[in-house]
Amino acid sequence: MKLTLNKTRISLILIALMASVTACNKDKATEPKIEEPAAQTSAEAPTASSGVAYVTSQDAGVSVIDLATLEVVKQIDIKAESPRGLGVTEDGKKLIVATRENESVSVIDIATGDVQQIKVGKNPEFVRVNGNFAYVSSEPSSKGGPPPKPGEKAKAEEEDDDDEELVPAKIAVIDIAKGEKIREITGGPETEGIEFSADGKQLVITNEADNTVTVHNLETGELVKTIKTHELGDRPRGIKVSPDGSTYLATLEYGNKFMVLDKDYNLVRTVDTAETPYGIAYDKKGERIFVATNKAKLLQVFDAKTYEKIKEIPTGNRCWHFSFTPNEKEILLACGKSDAVYVIDAEKLEVTKQIEVKGMPWGLVTYPKAMGSLDKP
After folding, report:
1. Could you say which DSSP state residue 80 is in?
2. What is the pTM (predicted TM-score) of this model?
3. What three-state secondary structure class fits 261?
4. Distance CA 352, CA 246 (A)
5. Cα gap 292→193, rounded to integer Å
6. How far is it, in rounded angstroms, from Cα 242 to Cα 281?
7. Per-residue confidence of the chain (377 residues) as pLDDT tens digits?
8. Cβ(248)–Cβ(195) below 8 Å
């Protein structure tokens, strides 16, 4: 009898132990399921914080690149053809894109995709956003094409002296909230790059047809100063102010150099570059200068104090504009004739990836805003 009871007790204890072990195993098995939502949230967080890049393509529209994955995730229909320059508002809610064929800008509501067209003038190109206003350059005298061949330079310069050929460009000033052009600032023929002075009171623009950089009062549009570039190099294009506001840089596309101006726009020096420089920018700390050289197929890097060349990064075909990512870890470079955006490690200064963007990519900006040839924070 005692033996039977002992066996029964042992059996009950074993059953209890097995039930306990089973329960523990079930708890462990369910643990990953409990953590799953948290894991998804943490995976999504970098996407939200990393931001996006907007890329215009001249034969297409606007591509959106997720900066967390470095992949194209969306195409924006801008309701117009030949997009080039672009800018994003401070709050990231609207994108302003210059569209050549209809002589307008497309103002795009990022949330809804709604597009408003605003007429600005012939051949709109650069776009810079400053607060509630967008400044858009135009090129009514634009002939385009390559530089004159040896022996043809004198003839080309004679043609450039023809007042009928060189129509002064206009910088259209758009009130973004009102959705209308409110005034114009008269620039030089074929106004190209746009930059704001460090104090925000002046507009600095490059005029490629008459080889000048001009400075204008931002409020009145009055011409303050003209810097002639012909003796240094022709066709000024990119323009950028240093983060501390002490220096301005302008690329001279047909001079194969960029010129350095002080805070009062006096010439300090020139710096030789590879063939046909265009887009130019500092890094956020103002320690390095980056220059996209089209025909040389290079992104060149210079020391911002000594102007010594640090490195040359091989790139694709017709790479004009670029931007750092908001976290400053990568540089994205739009290469039109390669149908690609090159991704460059900002520290190693090496290409790490190519993102396919068809339709001849032209310009590129990010949100949150970052340092680049077309924008800055």
Report:
1. S
2. 0.84
3. strand
4. 33
5. 14
6. 8
7. 444 444 445 454 444 444 444 444 444 333 333 233 232 322 233 344 689 999 999 999 999 999 999 999 999 999 999 999 999 999 999 999 999 999 999 999 999 999 999 999 999 999 999 999 999 998 876 655 554 543 344 344 444 444 446 788 999 999 999 999 999 999 998 899 999 999 999 999 999 999 999 999 999 999 999 999 999 999 999 999 999 999 999 999 999 999 999 999 999 999 999 999 999 999 999 999 999 999 999 999 999 999 999 999 999 999 999 999 999 999 999 999 999 999 999 999 999 999 999 999 999 999 999 999 999 99
8. yes
Residues 92, 177, 101, 375: is their CA dihedral positive or negative? negative
Q: Are 319 and 335 in contact (CB under 8 A)?
A: yes
* DSSP for 77-109, written as a single string: --SSS-EEEEEE-TTSSEEEEEETTTTEEEEEE
Hunting for tokens 């002992």 — which residue is that? Answer: 6
Q: Taking CA 356 as the corner, what is the angle to CA 292 and CA 341, rounded to the nearest 5 degrees?
A: 20
Q: Is 325 helix (H, G, I), strand (E, B) or coil?
A: coil
Q: CATH assignment of 51-367, given 3.30.950.30, 3.40.50.300, 2.130.10.10, 2.40.50.140?
A: 2.130.10.10
CA distance 88 to 84: 14
> What residues does each domain of the chain span?
51-367
